[in-house]
Amino acid sequence: MGVNLRELIPENIRKSVDLPALRGKIIAIDAYNALYQFLTAIRQPDGTPLMDSKGRVTSHLSGLFYRTINIIEHGLKPVYVFDGKPPEIKAMEIARRKKVKEEAVRKYEEALAKGDLEAAKRYAQMSSKLTEDMVADAKKLLDVMGIPWVQAEAEGEAQAAYLSKKGDAWAAASQDYDSLLFGAPRLVRNLTITGRRKLPRKDVYIEIKPEIIELNELLKALGITREQLIDIAILLGTDYNPEGVKGIGPKRALTLIKTYGSLERVLKIIPKAEFPVDPLKIREYFLKPPINQNYKIEWREPDEKGIIEFLCGERDFSETRVKNAIERLKKAYREHIKGRQLGLELWFS
Fold first, then answer.
1. Full-model pTM
2. How far apart are CA 158 and CA 164, in angstroms?
3. Cβ count within 10 A of residue 319
4. Is 111 helix (H, G, I), strand (E, B) or coil?
5. Do the bridges between strand 171-173 and strand 26-30 make them parallel or antiparallel, or are there none, so unpaired?
6. Is residue 64 a contact partner of residue 38, using CB atoms and an 8 Å limit?
7. Residue 173: CB partners within 8 Å, gap ≥ 6?
8. What is the pLDDT of residues 108-159, one digit of tens each?
9. How far apart are CA 27 and CA 348, in angstroms?
10. CA separation for the pair 141, 154 (Å, rounded)
């Protein structure tokens, strides 16, 4: 879910760009966020995900393979960051998500029984589940593609923010805004869904472009500090206190924090506010999350044989289509990564 800061971000802070504008940039992508997008979007008309002959879901692999190639062709250097063990303070949100998915499965089956394919697909998308096997397959695919990935200690967005703050990446990429709370200097949204997309429940298509949000510009525009942005998020609801404070929306949260200065002072005037987790512990987690500092970022020559064996031999992908995509990947690697790899290795040393 993540915190929804959209209403607080002025339009002039949201910089819509074309993919080529990010050429040469190293982007730390929230892997779970991207894989869920692929699982949700890449489905049959009745909502069934793509599967191989053994019934194993392959939607996430299809999206990861072809979208990553598209990103590299535009000159970007992606690094995928995978979630680690979720913090204990996230238990309520995890339980909430599980309940939502179970309800979606029930409604999906009902819609199928009624022959309502549109509703069935909608509920099927809501029931998307990323398993440990799917994550392992995604990492295996990235390995044979030569694309680096980093295993987070806990939250992937916190790790992506760390890479960005350290200078090992130019920005963090996710549809959620949590990377900003974790201190990412830049957030890129829409990176893995860029292109022509159909609006939900409408026969209307729009062009989606990457969107860049600079943390310092946002804080300056709102007249607050990063700590105060976190306090606002806690009032609205985060993954660690999903409900937020009843009756407080984005504008009021901003006004309260700017007026009283901090969450502690605000809570004195709303004593009935209930939190499943100590709100000050939530703030501390955003400021000092567990981080994996032992990682290596290196792009390698694509393993053509390995890709074909995995996608075509094990997962029933079309060999012709995969081979064509591999040629694109190899060409993009030569043009945008190989020639600059020495400089990158010196940079990270």
1. 0.90
2. 10
3. 12
4. helix
5. parallel
6. yes
7. 27, 28, 29, 30, 34, 160, 187, 188, 189, 191, 192
8. 677 777 777 777 777 667 777 899 999 999 999 999 999 999 999 999 999 9
9. 15
10. 22
